[in-house]
Write a structure and sequence with these properties.
Blueprint: E1 2-3, E2 17-19, E3 29-35, H1 42-53, H2 57-70, E4 72-79, H3 80-96, E5 102-107
Antiparallel strand pairs: 1-2, 3-4, 3-5
The structure holds L-tyrosinamide.
Length: 108
């Protein structure tokens, strides 16, 4: 923030504000990661990606296979609150169906 002083006022600041400080900050973003395991069925992981991450069947299958082959993959990127909620919903759903699927979040 700066102020221009057009010095015609005997030292009294009557200048015009020429810049304003932006006051909003972009929220930090968090990746929701899915981890591979040997027991959770592939169809269950695809279902999770469709249900909680709004992926289409093709995209969900591609992400599931990526996790299956590489060990970890990104389900989506969200604000902290949304990412945390998704992780909780996915973990609760997996436990309810007695699958060991793990989901976590990581700052971008
Ligand atoms: N590896 C699992 C299987 O062969 C499938 C799987 C994929 C599990 C992705 C978890 O996040 C996962 N049934």
């Amino acid at each position: 923030m700066s102020e221009q002083n057009n010095d015609t006022d005997g030292g009294v600041k009557t200048g015009v504000v020429v810049k304003t400080k932006p006051k909003t900050k972009k929220p930090s973003l968090y990746k929701v990661l899915m981890l591979n395991d040997d027991y959770t069925p592939m169809e269950f992981v695809v279902h999770i990606l469709e249900r909680f991450f709004n992926k289409g069947q093709e995209d969900a299958t591609r992400i599931m296979l990526h996790v299956h082959q590489k060990g970890v993959g990104v389900c989506g990127v969200f604000s902290f609150e949304v990412a945390e909620t998704k992780v909780t919903l996915v973990m609760d759903f997996a436990r309810k169906h007695q699958h060991p699927l793990q989901c976590t979040l990581e700052k971008e």
